[in-house]
């Protein structure tokens, strides 16, 4: 499963949801869905803008963890 760590990077940069959404150019509601990890997908252009706004790499905000169900 992919874990979204946008909230961690926002805290490290002391940036609010509203400020990040404005910098990225998406609504607060869409940024909230992304931040909570409830998003089904993210456009590379959006990921690019998030990384630019948070001065980070994609790997800083996206993380892979093996599902417990997938372990044999």
From TrEMBL:
GO molecular function: DNA binding
Stretches assigned to the HTH cro/C1-type domain: 12-61
Gene3D superfamilies per UniProt: lambda repressor-like DNA-binding domains (1.10.260.40)
Protein name: HTH cro/C1-type domain-containing protein
